[in-house]
Amino acid sequence: MSNRDRIRSTLAGAAGIVFVSLILGLAVNAALPGGVTFLTPPPSPPGEPLDFVKVWEAFDGRDAVFIDARTADEYEYGHIPGAINVPWLDRDRHLPALRREIPPDRKIIVYCDGEECQASNNLSAWLKDRGWKQVYVFKEGYPSWLAAGMEFTKGKAP
Amino acid sequence: MAGGGDGVHERESPVTAGLRFRRAIALLSRLALGAVFIYASYDKLNGSQLFVDAVDNYRLLPRMLLHPFAIILPWVQFVTGICLVAGALVPAAALVSAGMYAMFLAAMASAIIRGLDISCGCFNLTDEGQRVAWGSLWPRALGLIASIYVMAASNVFEWPLSRLLRSGKGNGKETL
After folding, report:
1. What's the pTM value of the predicted model, to 2 decimals?
2. Which domains does chain A have, with CATH numbers?
3. Backbone angles phi, psi at A136, to 5 degrees
4. Does residue B113 form part of some domain?
5. Chain A to chain B, count of Cβ pairs less than 8 Å apart?
6. Angle formed by the axes of helices B63-86 and B49-57, nearest 10°
């Protein structure tokens, strides 16, 4: 067998391996439930906005997880009690912990520094993209929480 | 009769011993590469959302390719691993293996250069896993070298390494 033939048969074999893998991947993905869809879904819109009263009710009834999308320094200076800090620019690093701690059907309320701040909108869409179904945005954010005289906590994220 | 009966062993020439040693290294490389690919693919074969996240964290692929890539790549790893362990289509499997390791190296180096602090997504998807850092590159570089070694030992290319591996017998037909 000439050098050219050996290279040709190697390339054909490699293409065969990739083709068989493609068929197996499609078949198993179609046959077994539980996996992700083969086609990537379109990007999710930001979470539905909640007004202050709804946010307070969720806080008082402990029926939501609060996520603070501000920076670690801002979070340390003061945050809603029990909130988890997931800075927008550092979100990837927090994803494994979020997957461990928050079930996909749990209600989540994301906030940042108020109407002007986009981090809560962005983070809520990012969370919905990753499978959390009930994600809401507290649009007025932390400044309105403080202005209403609500309790807050200081300190770093655990 | 002196020198001609059973139980008298001819001394193995140093060249043949060297050839056997190199072939043993190639065999071990092939089995190790295959085992690593099978192990790496095991948790991801059914389209894991965690693996989609891991791929997305590198911020290299357009969104529409994330799911197809995360579904197909583990199967390419698995089939390649099976071929390498079973000794089927070895040159082709080694070529695919080299391609994957080159891709992993490029993706990781790119993430480090862009300052991304992300999980590797290589084996452990269930917790923080291994972070991408300069130290994560050398095992992939070793995998790339091992893949090229297996390819060369399979007589795919007339490289100096191929000729070196064949030296000793002289007929140029030995393969793994």
Report:
1. 0.74
2. 1-40 (no CATH), 48-147 (3.40.250.10)
3. -125, 160
4. yes
5. 118
6. 110
